[in-house]
Amino acid sequence: MEHLIELRRRILISMGAIVFCAIFVFIFFEPVLHFLSAPYEHVTHRRLIVTDPLAPFIVRLKIAGYGGLALAVPIVMYQVWRFIVPGLHPRERRYAWAFLVSGVVLFLLGCLTAWLTISPALEFLLGVGGNSLRPLIDANKYLTLVMLMFAAFGFAFEFPLLLVFLMLVGAVNSRQLRNSRRWAAVGISVFAAVITPSQDPFSMLVMAIPMYIFYEGAILIGRLMKK
Predict the structure, then answer these.
(1) Does residue 201 contact residue 124 with C-beta atoms inside 8 Å?
(2) C-alpha angle 187/178/155, rounded to 5°?
(3) Which pLDDT band holds residue 117 (cuts at 50, 70, 90)?
(4) For the segment 160-209, what is each residue's pLDDT rounded down to a tens digit?
């Protein structure tokens, strides 16, 4: 019962943090929208459009929801840490702390990479149809694409943590990873092609190349762990 009460407390704090951050983003909706729509305006020199009366409110709610969740990630991760840390040994706490910090940093790095790829991806997607098509992009669909790009790159950049965890539990070792480089390169390429929301070759390469670098980095970490 004590564990369940503590779990409920951590969940309530996390939900409260998400709601508070969502309200904050809802209030400052226009600066956030201006920031997110900057790549589209840079490529097309036009503003986003809406196609029905409810769309502006839906867009505002969507940005508030996603933005609140993103801002609350550090608080949520801290609550997860506070819940699991009492049951860990000192050595396990060091590993858990390293995984927690690395996970947040890698996710933010993935989001930053996604942000840098949005403009080139839009240039490819809007230009591949030629000059006969005039792009008028709905704000809801554009923002959905941007959020999916953030999520896809953020979770893809957690790849090295997965490999290191598998090595820690003994599921794989660095030697097996070294012997599977070719298959890993093929698998990473297929994964990047499938998970990239924009489906353009530039975004696929920008996702696949760091993932393979992370793969080699995980091999190096595995060798250091043996020592």
Answers:
(1) yes
(2) 45
(3) very high
(4) 888 888 887 777 888 888 888 889 899 999 998 888 887 788 889 999 99
Q: Which token pair is 135? A: 């792009």
Handedness of CA 185, 187, 190, 193 (dihedral sign): negative
Cβ atoms of residues 112 and 78 within 8 Å: no
Q: How far apart are CA 15 and CA 17, in angstroms?
A: 5
Which H, E and C letters describe the chain, residue by residue?
Answer: CHHHHHHHHHHHHHHHHHHHHHHHHHHCHHHHHHHHHHHHHHHHCCCCECCCCCHHHHHHHHHHHHHHHHHHHHHHHHHHHHHHHHHCCHHHHHHHHHHHHHHHHHHHHHHHHHHHHHHHHHHHHHHCCCCCCCCCCEHHHHHHHHHHHHHHHHHHCCHHHHHHHHHHCCCCCHHHHHHCHHHHHHHHHHHHHHHCCCCCHHHHHHHHHHHHHHHHHHHHHHHHHHC
Structure tokens at 174: 């660095």
